Amino acid sequence: MILQLRNLLILLTITAFTFACNSDKKEQQALFEEVMLVHDEVMPKMGNLRALSTTLSQKADSLVLDSLIDHSSKVSKMRELSKKLKDANEGMMEWMRQFEQVEEGSPHGEVMQYLIEQRKQIQKVRDDMLNSKDEAEKYLLENS
Fold first, then answer.
1. 8-state DSSP, 105
2. Cα–Cα distance between 56 and 51 in angstroms, integer?
3. What is the pLDDT of residues 70-82, one digit of tens each?
4. DSSP letters of 31-46?
């Protein structure tokens, strides 16, 4: 009887551990997918950021050549916006370089902490990209 109880206790412990591991993995997977969803939302916009930066740089360069009118404030604004676009683009590149897949068997708490930090970082990258893009497009529309 004691042996049966012991075997039952072992079986229940193994079952509980298996369910806990599955639950942890599902929670980790959900957070990983959330991080990747933000990445996938803005990754396609990188080309647009580069194109806007190039447009602003070219317009600034052409204004510099016009020696009849002082365009220094416009040139300065265009270069500032171009830099913001480049910085936002580089922010995405840097995030992608440092992002690591979590190793199988890593402690759940560490995995969750890492993914929470990655979510914060990629959300900042997204915000920087979208804000710089919106600001540049607005400027170009108003100053075309």
1. T
2. 9
3. 888 999 999 999 9
4. HHHHHHHHHHHHGGGH
